[in-house]
């Protein structure tokens, strides 16, 4: 393997020397993109990733067919686009934020295309489609431009993106572990494609982001060269994408004027009251007859309108007093993340619906109140994780938890890690509580246990004894 790699590198050096001897003085090397990709070890390794792990996902999807196969084909297209972007990046100079948006538009369009499959009426394979669509965000590691770009390093970004995807991928494993091995194979292959597949690839070749061409190279947004050099084979750069990969939060903020503008105006010597009209007595509110109203009726109407707030309220995600994370009224948000937390802080979720929250780090307490179809993924909890007045929630503990309390909740799916198997689970006025336990080995399926919700109370020896109802088949 090493000998073959050395031979390929020597061939690449030989080609560069030929071009240099020809007297080319262009600031951009005239190298055939196809040849450069063939000789680049990073691109060859990416081809190996696609022909190995990605091919395994595609083979399993081919056996399933339908929407799963359609979503997997989009994943194949996205990896092919990323390969083209890696080749193209070395021919372009490092762009700014706007140039990066144009550069990544093909990848952005495929992410939106995969997300569109999860919208509308839910299909039987919704978890498959959601896992495939969410996994594509890991490919956005290529958007890393430096420590001030607002994103994590590529290795950490791939791992964080998969943690959000794993929630739905595990649901596929649990649902089909005893039904269809093809679905189980698809879910396992999808995970191995990213962890360790893509993560290890980025770790070896691009730990600090993509490799860009030297300064003075063609910009990503520029038109292709009109010369006869082989570089003209490169496709034209795409137009700017939508805001799914880039939001206004990543754009440079305009400088605020603030008090400096006020002082500047004072120093200029301009009259501060210039342009103001003089208010005469007949213009004052107390002297205007057209403003006379019936206080009794108007006051009641104003009071009624002032308190007619919406039941939902504005969405909120903030740290209050440095101790309590408040997440309220989040609807349809699958990317809620809390980082930089410590064991003295707590999390309180209220009124959220169809959203997913990930808590990274150890927290003192987590409370989920009046939430519907909510997913919570956390690492460690010191005191307790409480689910109150909820409907159809899913909670996953990746670390340890001493106490889990479920009160007045209909439908709760608990995923416990091996470190949290000794947790004390308390339920009250709740139904449809299922606990998922990991298998003995890393490749073993998860085991599902239903907690009882019916009990028998019998009076014996002067006191009542309580035991869960057991159903016998016969």
TrEMBL record:
<dbReference type="Pfam" id="PF01213">
    <property type="entry name" value="CAP_N-CM"/>
</dbReference>
<feature type="compositionally biased region" description="Low complexity">
    <location>
        <begin position="216"/>
        <end position="234"/>
    </location>
</feature>
<dbReference type="GO" id="GO:0005737">
    <property type="term" value="C:cytoplasm"/>
</dbReference>
<feature type="region of interest" description="Disordered">
    <location>
        <begin position="216"/>
        <end position="257"/>
    </location>
</feature>
<dbReference type="InterPro" id="IPR006599">
    <property type="entry name" value="CARP_motif"/>
</dbReference>
<dbReference type="InterPro" id="IPR001837">
    <property type="entry name" value="Adenylate_cyclase-assoc_CAP"/>
</dbReference>
<dbReference type="InterPro" id="IPR013992">
    <property type="entry name" value="Adenylate_cyclase-assoc_CAP_N"/>
</dbReference>
<dbReference type="GO" id="GO:0008179">
    <property type="term" value="F:adenylate cyclase binding"/>
</dbReference>
<dbReference type="GO" id="GO:0007015">
    <property type="term" value="P:actin filament organization"/>
</dbReference>
<dbReference type="Pfam" id="PF08603">
    <property type="entry name" value="CAP_C"/>
</dbReference>
<dbReference type="InterPro" id="IPR017901">
    <property type="entry name" value="C-CAP_CF_C-like"/>
</dbReference>
<comment type="similarity">
    <text>Belongs to the CAP family.</text>
</comment>
<dbReference type="GO" id="GO:0003779">
    <property type="term" value="F:actin binding"/>
</dbReference>
<protein>
    <recommendedName>
        <fullName>Adenylyl cyclase-associated protein</fullName>
    </recommendedName>
</protein>
<dbReference type="Pfam" id="PF21938">
    <property type="entry name" value="CAP_N"/>
</dbReference>
<dbReference type="InterPro" id="IPR053950">
    <property type="entry name" value="CAP_N"/>
</dbReference>
<dbReference type="InterPro" id="IPR013912">
    <property type="entry name" value="Adenylate_cyclase-assoc_CAP_C"/>
</dbReference>
<feature type="domain" description="C-CAP/cofactor C-like">
    <location>
        <begin position="314"/>
        <end position="451"/>
    </location>
</feature>
<dbReference type="GO" id="GO:0019933">
    <property type="term" value="P:cAMP-mediated signaling"/>
</dbReference>
<dbReference type="InterPro" id="IPR018106">
    <property type="entry name" value="CAP_CS_N"/>
</dbReference>
<dbReference type="InterPro" id="IPR036223">
    <property type="entry name" value="CAP_C_sf"/>
</dbReference>
<dbReference type="InterPro" id="IPR016098">
    <property type="entry name" value="CAP/MinC_C"/>
</dbReference>
<dbReference type="InterPro" id="IPR036222">
    <property type="entry name" value="CAP_N_sf"/>
</dbReference>
């Amino acid at each position: 393997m090493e000998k073959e790699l050395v031979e390929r590198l020597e061939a690449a050096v030989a080609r560069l020397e030929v071009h240099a001897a020809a007297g080319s003085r262009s600031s951009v090397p005239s190298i055939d993109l196809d040849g450069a990709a063939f000789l680049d070890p990073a691109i060859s390794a990416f081809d190996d990733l696609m022909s190995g792990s990605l091919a395994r996902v595609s083979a399993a999807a081919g056996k399933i067919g339908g929407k799963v196969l359609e979503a997997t084909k989009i994943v194949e297209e996205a990896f092919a686009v990323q390969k083209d972007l890696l080749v193209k990046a070395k021919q372009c100079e490092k762009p700014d934020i706007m140039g990066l948006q144009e550069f990544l538009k093909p990848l952005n369009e495929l992410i939106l295309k995969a997300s569109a499959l999860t919208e509308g009426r839910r299909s039987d394979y919704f978890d498959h489609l959601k896992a495939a669509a969410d996994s594509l965000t890991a490919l956005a590691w290529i958007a890393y431009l430096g420590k001030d770009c607002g994103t994590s390093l590529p290795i950490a970004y791939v791992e964080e993106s998969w943690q959000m995807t794993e929630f739905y991928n595990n649901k596929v494993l649990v649902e089909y572990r005893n039904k269809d091995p093809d679905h189980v194979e698809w879910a396992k292959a999808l995970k191995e494609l990213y962890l360790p597949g893509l993560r290890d690839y980025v770790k070896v070749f691009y730990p600090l982001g993509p490799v860009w061409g030297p300064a003075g190279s063609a910009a990503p947004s520029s038109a292709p060269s009109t010369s006869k050099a082989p570089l003209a084979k490169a496709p034209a750069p795409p137009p700017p994408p939508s805001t799914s990969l880039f939001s206004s939060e990543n754009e440079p903020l305009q400088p605020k004027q603030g008090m400096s503008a006020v002082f500047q105006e004072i120093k200029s010597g301009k009259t501060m009251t210039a342009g103001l009209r003089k208010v005469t007595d007949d213009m004052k509110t107390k002297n205007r007859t057209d403003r006379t109203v019936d206080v009794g009726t108007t006051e009641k109407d104003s009071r009624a309108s002032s308190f007619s707030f919406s039941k939902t309220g504005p969405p909120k995600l903030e740290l209050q007093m440095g101790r309590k994370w408040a997440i309220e009224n989040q609807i349809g948000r699958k990317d809620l993340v809390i980082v930089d937390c410590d064991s003295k802080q707590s999390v309180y979720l209220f009124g959220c619906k169809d959203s997913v929250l990930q808590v990274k780090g150890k927290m003192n307490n987590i409370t989920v109140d009046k939430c519907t179809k909510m997913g919570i993924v956390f690492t460690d909890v010191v005191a307790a994780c409480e689910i109150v007045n909820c409907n159809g929630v899913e909670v996953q503990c990746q670390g340890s938890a001493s106490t889990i309390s479920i009160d007045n909740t209909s439908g709760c799916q608990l995923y416990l890690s091996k470190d949290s198997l000794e947790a004390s689970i308390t339920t009250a006025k709740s139904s449809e509580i299922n606990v998922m336990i990991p298998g003995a080995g890393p490749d073993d399926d998860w085991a599902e246990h239903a907690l009882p919700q019916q009990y028998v109370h019998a009076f014996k020896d002067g006191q009542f004894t309580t035991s869960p109802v057991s159903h016998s088949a016969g």
